[in-house]
Amino acid sequence: xxxxxxxxxxxxxxxxxxxxxxxxxxxxxxxxxxxxxxxxxxxxxxxxxxxxxxxxxxxxxxxxxxxxxxxxxxxxxxxxxxxxxxxxxxxxxxxxxxxxxxxxxxxxxxxxxxxxxxxxxxxxxxxxxxxxxxxxxxxxxxxxxxxxxxxxxxxxxxxxxxxx
Length: 164
Ligand code: RP5
Description:
Elements: E1 4-8, H1 14-26, E2 31-35, H2 42-54, E3 59-65, H3 70-77, E4 82-87, H4 95-102, E5 111-112, H5 116-132, H6 136-162
Parallel strand pairs: 1-2, 1-3, 3-4, 4-5
The structure holds 5-O-phosphono-beta-D-ribofuranose.
């Protein structure tokens, strides 16, 4: 059963949003990933949110570029947390998607992450942290991954300092 939904506005967003899935795989969090658009398939987007909610999905991650309304449209349909990943898909370099995603009206928040792959990865981490509030095993896996990151920085630092 998917605990997290990963939506993207176009198949052209797939390579960036796949980064989300990689982190959730690493943390053993079940997810459902698909393409659905706020503009091109609005009814499908609304239906997916209702169906996934009914099946137990707890966090929605939405990546979109240009006039990025996907996360906002999902936030309009659910009171569960919605995380938005703005994507650089136009000659405006992602500023268009960033503003469209972050500037939600009061009462319909979209937790907006960084642009592109950095945001896709952190959306997965944040979704996992939200789920971990009621899942001590997942909390432990997140702690273990953080310990591994800490160790890798300490190892790199020790090697760099040794060469001086
Ligand atoms: C957005 O428009 C999508 O999320 C994508 O980032 C961008 C361009 O979509 P395509 O024209 O490549 O399908 O809706």
